[in-house]
């Protein structure tokens, strides 16, 4: 997924899943990593939401990661939960 930043430059946005209990990101086939950079990129919010909805326990949340920032996705918007420089 690509977006336009403040100066009109394209930026790459990653759509990832985070386990809210563990604080780790899904990297595929029961593999978890500490940072969104290494996590599986679902590329589409709806695809990630469907996957999270099928997961046991309901502990997965969709996050958008771009330009060193990570935002939790919420239907109707998102909010900042962390920032990395």
List the helices and strands and how they pair.
Blueprint: E1 2-4, E2 10-12, E3 14-19, E4 24-28, E5 31-33, H1 45-54, E6 60-66, E7 69-74, E8 77-83
Antiparallel strand pairs: 1-2, 3-4, 3-6, 4-5, 6-7, 7-8
Report on this model:
This protein is mainly beta and 85 residues long. It has one domain. The protein has one helix spanning 45-54; strands at residues 2-4, 10-12, 14-19, 24-28, 31-33, 60-66, 69-74, 77-83. The strands form two sheets. The chain has a six-stranded antiparallel sheet with strand order 5-4-3-6-7-8. A two-stranded antiparallel sheet has the order 1-2. A hairpin with a 4-residue loop joins strand 3 and strand 4. The protein is globular, with a radius of gyration of 13 Å. It starts with a strand and ends with a strand.
Shape call: globular
Q: Which structural class best describes the helix and strand composition?
A: mainly beta
Order of strands across the widest beta sheet?
5-4-3-6-7-8
Query: Could you tell me the mean pLDDT?
Result: 79
Main sheet summary: 6 strands, antiparallel
The number of helical segments is 1
Taking all Cα atoms into account, the compactness measure Rg is 13 Å
Number of strands: 8
Query: How many domains would you count in the coordinates?
Result: 1
Low-confidence stretches: 76-85
Helix content: 10-25%
Distance between the termini: 21 Å
Q: Spell out the helices and strands N to C.
A: EEEEEHEEE
Strand content: over 45%
Name the descriptors.
1 helix, globular, two-stranded antiparallel ribbon, mainly beta, 12% helix, 85 residues
């Amino acid at each position: 997924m690509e977006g336009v930043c403040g100066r009109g430059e394209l930026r790459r946005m990653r759509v990832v899943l985070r386990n809210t209990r563990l604080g780790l990101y899904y990297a595929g086939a029961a593999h978890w990593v500490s940072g969104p950079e290494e996590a599986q990129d679902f590329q589409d919010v709806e695809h990630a939401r469907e996957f999270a909805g099928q997961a046991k326990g309901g502990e997965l949340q969709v996050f958008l990661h771009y330009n060193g920032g990570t935002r939790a996705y919420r239907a109707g918007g998102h909010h900042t939960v962390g920032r990395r420089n």
